[in-house]
Specification:
- This protein has 8 helices and 9 strands.
- The protein has about 250 residues and is an alpha/beta fold.
- It has one domain: Spore Coat Polysaccharide Biosynthesis Protein SpsA, Chain A (Alpha-Beta Complex).
- The longest helix is centred in the C-terminal third of the chain and has 20 residues, at about 220-240.
């Protein structure tokens, strides 16, 4: 028999960089929701080289919970690298990643899980499809930049998505491994690379309307990250030409 020794249904990956102010409350909500849901689960916090007390806080408040795993990167490599590490370590049948501020409430996971079980391979949150609700908007310029990046991703990569950058996405386990093992980009453009790879593989991707609320503690370095993300789209095209996406 090849059954897993300790079967896990859900893996929830939370990338974190200097999140000591927010991550405690978020993890409390995640554990509360998952305990009520009843499926065996694990929560993987991936620290992206934090310089504050993020890891110490997580260990102090949640270290006695058997569902918690902590992975650490020795230096800041980028959100994409942190998510990739967590997703490749995840043992669940269904894997999710969520921003540390829970801008998409963790309760949304139930809808994503149903879609993954019955209809699709990849489920991505969208703030721009019917049924979505934005409770607290980003500053206008940042919101326009996000829309612009989605438009560029669709144009340059031939995608057809309404919201590339929403930080809540779910995957079937075998699909997650196929995608994340091939991921090259470590900055904010990793979302576009993921969806491009899913398109190349002809996986079924479903957009799910989410409730979303902005948190002012964002770690986005606006101009630097916007430029790097745009260059990332060009790198994705170059990688395809160079045969880096088998």
């Amino acid at each position: 028999m090849n059954a897993k020794k300790n079967p896990v249904t859900l893996s929830i990956v939370v990338p974190a960089y200097n999140e000591e102010r927010r991550i405690g409350k978020s993890l409390e909500e995640i554990f509360r929701f998952c305990n009520a849901l009843g499926d065996p689960y694990e929560v993987i916090v991936v620290d992206d080289g934090s310089t504050d007390e993020t890891v110490a806080l997580v260990r102090r408040r949640f270290g006695d919970r058997p569902q918690l795993r902590i992975a650490q990167q020795p230096e800041r490599r980028g959100k994409g690298a942190a998510v990739q590490q967590g997703m490749l370590q995840g043992q669940g049948d269904y894997l999710f990643f969520s921003d540390a501020d829970l801008s998409v409430p963790i309760e949304s996971l139930a809808i994503f899980l149903d879609e993954l079980r019955n209809h699709c391979d990849v489920a991505i949150g969208s703030r721009r499809v019917p049924g979505a609700k934005i409770e607290i908007h980003q500053p206008l310029f940042r919101e326009m930049m996000g829309r612009g990046f989605t438009w560029l991703s669709n144009l340059i990569l031939g995608l057809r998505h309404s919201d590339v950058t929403c930080g809540f996405k779910g995957f079937r386990r075998e699909i997650a491994r196929e995608l994340f093992i091939r991921l090259h980009l470590q900055n904010w453009s990793f979302d576009s690379e993921l969806l491009y790879l899913a398109d190349l593989k002809k996986y079924r991707v479903t957009e799910i309307p989410v409730t979303w609320r902005n948190d002012q503690g964002t770690k986005v370095r606006l101009w630097k990250d916007v430029l790097a993300s745009f260059l990332g789209l060009l790198q994705i095209r170059a990688n395809r030409v160079l045969g880096k996406y088998p």
